[in-house]
Amino acid sequence: MAVIRKPHDVPGTVAAALFVGLGVVLILQTDRMTPMGSVFPITISAAMIVFSAILIVRNFVIAARCPSVEAADGTASETEPTQGSMPRRIGFLVAMAAWVVLIPILGFFVASLIAFFAIMAVASHERVTPREGAMLVAMGIIVLTGFYLIMANVLLIPMPRGLFF
Q1: What residues contact residue 5 under an 8 Å CB cut-off, 6+ apart?
Q2: Which of 40-49, 80-89, 122-131, 156-165 is the most confident on average?
Q3: Which DSSP state fits 77?
Q4: Is residue 162 a part of any domain in this protein?
Q5: Do 92 and 63 share a domain, yes or no?
Q6: Domain identity same for 54 and 91
Q7: Could you list the residue ranges that cross the membrane (predicted)?
Q8: Which of 4, 42, 72, 108 would bridge 159 by S-S if both were Cys, CB 3.0 to 4.6 A apart?
Q9: Do 90 and 150 reside in the same domain of the chain?
Q10: What CA–CA distance (Å, rounded) separates 61 from 7?
Q11: Torsion-angle region of residue 152: left (phi > 0), alpha (psi -120 to 50) or beta?
Q12: What is the rounded distance in angstroms from the CA atom of residue 22 to the CA atom of residue 29?
């Protein structure tokens, strides 16, 4: 008989389940929108549901594959989760807050570039060589430019304009 074990990442599984529910609610709210206006919210909500469901399944599969480890004295031992870095978390929050403040001043694209590079710097754990740095800068500019052009010119989402574009 199969035993359902506790998910691998309980907080992550609970959050994913909440996001599935939120995605369903958001899709149900689009019936008041025009057909063209509802395309973007439905697409994002559907992606959120799919990725959250994948996370839930992943967490249960990992829990099923990893039996509890027994210590030499017979007691179960669990590995301690990593605590992360509080300065990095604060740096991320500061970068996100600065991004929100800078959008109406500099414009969406320029503020997003600054936020992207600030978050990349905060998230980097090891030294980056000049070549790797140049590649990251180039890829960041390409990805952000692509997303901006798709949102502004294809999806016709009005973008906040500031000093720049």
Answers
A1: 60, 63, 64
A2: 40-49
A3: E
A4: no
A5: no
A6: no
A7: 12-30, 36-57, 90-123, 135-157
A8: 108
A9: yes
A10: 8
A11: alpha
A12: 11
Strands 76-77 and 69-70 turn out to be antiparallel
Residue whose pair of structure tokens reads 């399944």 in the numeric block: 57
Average pLDDT, the chain: 83
Is 97 found in the same domain as 56? no
Q: Which residues contact 52 (CB under 8 A, 6 or more apart)?
A: 16, 17, 19, 20, 23
Q: Which domain holds residue 16?
A: 10-70
What is d(CA 156, CA 149) in angstroms, rounded to the nearest whole number? 9
Which residue is associated with the tokens 């800068």? 137
3-state secondary structure of 76: strand
Q: Would the pTM of this model clear 0.85, i.e. be above it?
A: no
Contact 160, 102 (CB under 8 A): no
The answer to whether position 77 is within a domain reads no
pLDDT tens for 92-111 read 999 999 999 999 999 999 99
Number of domain units in the chain: 2
Buried b (16+ CB within 10 A) or exposed e, 77-107: eeeeeeeeeeeeeebeeebeeebeebbeebb
Q: How far apart are the C-alpha atoms of 108 and 82, rounded to whole Å? A: 35
Tokens 């959008």 label which residue?
A: 103
